[in-house]
Amino acid sequence: MTDVANKIPVDLIEAAVLHLDCEEADGPGPPTGWRAVSLLQQRADTVMLSAAIALSVSAESVRRRVGAAILGQLGHSHDNPDGVFREERYGALERLLLNEIETAADADVLEDTCVALGHLRDCRAIPIALKLVLHSNAKVRFGVVMALTGYEDEAAIAGLIKLSSDDASDVRDWATFGLGQHIDVDSDQIRAALHARLVDINPDVRNEAIAGLARRKDNAVSSVLARELSVQVATPLFEAARDLADPSLCAALLAAREIGQPWRSHEEKDWLKAMAACGCPLPDS
Known about the structure:
mainly alpha
């Protein structure tokens, strides 16, 4: 067909290429960077698929990144979370990742390709992503976390356990989140990894470890949760209190209410759910 709607959206592709890492502007205006990528992902047709695959083999690293990002969520929507052309997308992303590993070409491409494969959730990517667990660049290791999250696969879980003690706090945070919240598997190894993060210097990492252990009904985390609630307000902590449903947390939850004022939009609802689960009496308004 020669209809304009089926032509390659060159302008959007060039906007994505030129502004991929730029801060997104607020308000109306032409889409740039990742906003352009999002619009390209909505083109769920063979023309866009072919264009994205072509970008993924470009000599320019930023074009390979744009191609990987489009392939990761092409046709993704609320009604169709898996998107379209899954096999073709996986094949192109696998070839891209293997080529980048072989040539050590660009850390940003490695990261974005791993993230894209994480969106696809195809277990064939696990052994390839695991090749990068010890990569020297933290951005690549972050991408590996995205590629390994959500699988109840022993090798993927072992990779996340390794990355949960990474030197980079973002990597530890998301690996701990993946172990704690994105799988239903419970094991001594997972619990040990989460317990190790209870003393992390980063509060976000500690919060995810607490939430993951509470989700597994590990009552040993109650005292740590109470301590954290007395100094900070965070949704994972309220979720942990709700999961533990431990009345001994009432005093800590009340303390959290005092330090958390004024509430952000969702925090009061999360707090009320935690109070109800723990059987705590509500204070007078």
